[in-house]
């Protein structure tokens, strides 16, 4: 349960940092952030909202367009918004770039709010994620090569599919990292245009383990 909460909380705070939202709209936007393969139920959303309210990070108020009394038979819609403490906590989340940000569940949410994350932190998270996947890729390849003789055709194809998926994400991360480095150099040079990434300039190599922070 805590694992889902670890993903939900920053996603909720990030969306409410953009604008106040009532529960139904918040759920729809969370499904976009978390992806259709992780469908979100009210049963998991509202306990998380309640926890955030208790900790003082968000507040819920009746919607201005809600009916003034209960004669309509409809419950007033509650609009949730970030508090000052909630904004401060969300900024601390955005500034963190340690191993937790590289993991499968957390990385998707962190990436969804990259527009609100500073360039240096974005780059550290991308490099950390690539490092983590590179390690996983080596493990999967080793396991695949050792066990392939004992696999039937379908199991073999499933393993190959998983291996190709990790390889695709590593290539995707390489492109993102190159773009981030190019954008940063362009900013430093005052051109405003990304430049071609040069590992010699950055002093880093693909697969290099970044320093852990946050």
Automatic annotation (TrEMBL):
<feature type="domain" description="Transcription regulator PadR N-terminal">
    <location>
        <begin position="12"/>
        <end position="91"/>
    </location>
</feature>
<feature type="region of interest" description="Disordered">
    <location>
        <begin position="184"/>
        <end position="214"/>
    </location>
</feature>
<dbReference type="InterPro" id="IPR036388">
    <property type="entry name" value="WH-like_DNA-bd_sf"/>
</dbReference>
<dbReference type="InterPro" id="IPR052509">
    <property type="entry name" value="Metal_resp_DNA-bind_regulator"/>
</dbReference>
<dbReference type="InterPro" id="IPR005149">
    <property type="entry name" value="Tscrpt_reg_PadR_N"/>
</dbReference>
<protein>
    <submittedName>
        <fullName>PadR family transcriptional regulator</fullName>
    </submittedName>
</protein>
<dbReference type="Pfam" id="PF03551">
    <property type="entry name" value="PadR"/>
</dbReference>
<dbReference type="InterPro" id="IPR036390">
    <property type="entry name" value="WH_DNA-bd_sf"/>
</dbReference>
């Amino acid at each position: 349960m805590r694992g889902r909460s670890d993903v939900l909380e920053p996603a909720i705070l990030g969306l409410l940092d953009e604008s106040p939202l009532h529960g139904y709209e918040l759920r729809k936007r969370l499904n976009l952030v978390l992806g259709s393969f992780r469908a979100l139920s009210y049963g998991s959303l509202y306990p998380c909202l309640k926890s955030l309210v208790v900790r003082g990070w968000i507040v819920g108020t009746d919607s201005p367009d809600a009916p003034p009394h209960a004669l309509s038979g409809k419950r007033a819609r509650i609009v949730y918004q970030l508090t000052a403490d909630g904004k401060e906590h969300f900024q601390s989340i955005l500034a963190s770039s340690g191993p937790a940000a590289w993991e499968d569940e957390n990385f998707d949410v962190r990436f969804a709010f990259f527009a609100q994350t500073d360039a240096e932190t974005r780059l550290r998270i991308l490099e950390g994620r690539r490092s983590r996947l590179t390690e996983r890729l080596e493990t999967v390849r080793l396991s695949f090569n050792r066990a392939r003789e004992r696999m039937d055709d379908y199991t073999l194809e499933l393993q190959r599919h998983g291996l190709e998926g990790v390889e695709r994400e590593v290539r995707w991360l390489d492109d993102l990292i190159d773009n981030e480095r190019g954008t940063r150099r362009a900013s430093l040079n005052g051109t405003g245009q990304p430049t071609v990434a040069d590992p010699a300039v950055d002093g880093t190599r693909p697969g290099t383990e970044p320093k852990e922070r946050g």
